[in-house]
Each structure stands twice: as C-alpha cells, then as structure tokens.
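Subject: Sanity check before I submit

Could someone independently write out the structure tokens for this chain? I want to compare against mine line by line before I put it in a report. The sequence has 356 residues.
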Amino acid sequence: MKISGIKGKPSLLGLGILGILIFCMLCAPACAHYSYEGFPLDTIRSGTGEVYVSCGDNAGLQGTSYQSNTFVTKFTNVPTGDVEWAELKVGVWGGSTSRVGRAEANLDGYSLFNETLRANSTVLSNNVDCSGSGIYLIHYNCTNLINQYGINGDGNITATVTTTPGSPALDGRVYGAVLIVAYNNGSSSQYWINQGNLNLHKNVTSGGTYYPDLDANITRFNGAVNTSLGNATLTVGYFAGDSSQKDYLYFNPPDASGSPYNLSNFNWDLNGNWGQKLDGDNVANGTCDTLGFTTKNFDLHAFDVTVTNSSNYVVFWRGHGNNNNETEIYDPAWPAVNPNTESYVSPFLAVLKITP
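---
Independent answer below. Compare away.
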C-alpha cells in the first residue's frame, strides 16, 4: 500500500498511520498478557480503610474438561456502603496454550465480563493474565456495580461464572473466585493489595522453549506502617496447589545468604529462625480457611503476622531441596512427583491488613 501526500511526499497523516501500524506490529507479542513464568505479585492498591476478602461458599477446580461449565459462589456480609474499590478475581484452567474459549461472569444477574481466553495472543484484554499451560486470572473492577446498584443491599452477592469451549476447546474448569472490597468505615486501618499470576515451576520445555526451574519469588508491601496499629493479617491465594506436595511461605525473613530470602538458596535450614514461617511445610494444600471441604487446586489462607515499620514482604517457595549435594530442587519426570516440592504452583494474591 502506498501512502502519499502532496507532490508525492508522504503526508503527516500517512506517516502517523504507518507509525501506528509499525508500532503495533512490533509490540504485538510483548503486549499480550501471557508469559509462561507469569507475573510477579505487585501492589495494585493500598490505602487507609478496611478490606473484605472472600472466596464465598464455593471454590476448587470443578466441572468437566473441554465442555461448558458453570461455577457459582455466594459471598456474604459484603460491605455495600462507602465502597472505594472492588474487584472480582476469577481463575480458569485452560489446559494448554493452544486451546481457546470464553469466560463470562455476573453478580446477582448483573453482567460483569465476557472475555476471550486464548493464551499467548493479543486478543487477551487488560483484564486477563495467563501463565504456564493456561492458568488464567481474570480480574474485573466491580466498584460501580456495587456502589450504584448495591446489588440486593443485604450484603449477599452471588457470582456466576460460565466458561464456553472454542476450537480447540480449552479445559474450562474454574479454580474459584475471590471478591475484594476496599471500603471506608472511618477506621485508621491500613492495607496493601498485591496481585499477580506467577507460575513457579520445575524445569520444563513448553512450546519448544526451555524454561529452567523457577523456585521462588518475593512480593513487597512498600510504605510506612502506622505503628499505633497493633494487629496484622496476611491473606494469600494460590492456583494449582497440590495437597500431596510441600511448599513454603515466609513473612519478612532476614536478608541473609542462608535465608529463604536468598532466592537461589533452596537448601535453607528448615528449622532456622528465618522470620515467620507460615502454615508449616504445605501452604498451597488445596484448602480455603473459611470452607470445610477440600478446594482442589485452589487456596485462600489468612495468617496473623508481625510487621516492621516499613517495607514488609513475603517470600513464596514452591519447595525445598533434599540435601546440600543438590544443585537444584530434584523434580522427576512426569508423572512422578517429588513430595518435597510443588511441580507447579501459582500465587496470585497477597493482601496485608493492619488494624487497631
């Protein structure tokens, strides 16, 4: 196509259009919201006030692979007044980066989203991130929906998620949904909401590309802490955790070579004094604190923690080395597993709340 202006010279408009086309061509792969190793957890919102975090009354990978699935969970005691920010986070298992489908959700019948799920593609919207072999996190702002409609106004809100396979069909089972509401009730409480879609994994070749193991990552809650507040709670969410495989979570371990803070040290002393070791040796164990049943491949846990005056952080580890002679965490070939490590696990949420 020839773009020309007066006297055969390129027009400014033509050059602008051409520039946009070239820019889009160059950035298309980078702009896609897909990465095999995923996205580290970063602070997407922080402030003063209270935070509601819940998976409702249902969670855990369920449904039928490669068919349409409907997942329903009911949130209770949802704050519906003075809401400053609210978001619904939904996890969907794709099964492969080559598989395609759609996911839509509503809150008490009010449509929230209808998204295309196609990993490693520019069709993914800004509301969708995908990691690994198709671990989708759909995060959608519902502040106006709660504020304007108040839903039923009784604090009970039902989320319905429906997945539809394309061709080739994605798995389509739903991990679960988490509703987060930040609201102002006049308190001096502080909060940080960190989100990502991290794929901690063993050595693997995917799509013809080799990825060496990714064992650990840190997420930080930067900023000064109100020292007059005395209680702190950390809430973490995972996709793809397995109850039969160990993983580790540390809050504020010291910056030392022998500490789990050192992300290249997978043989730290498990009995050492490395900050606060949370939930023993198996955090992503397929459970949710508020539910009395197994939530397969989905976790939402809350822990009481002790914070410092500023710059608090969490370290996620997918496992631990067996002995000092290893050069990396041992992972046998599929379908065998090493029970001392998660082959794959995806932290997606970390919320720190500090209250009076």
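---
OP: Matches mine. For the report I'm noting this point. The chain has two domains: 34-46+188-356, 50-186.
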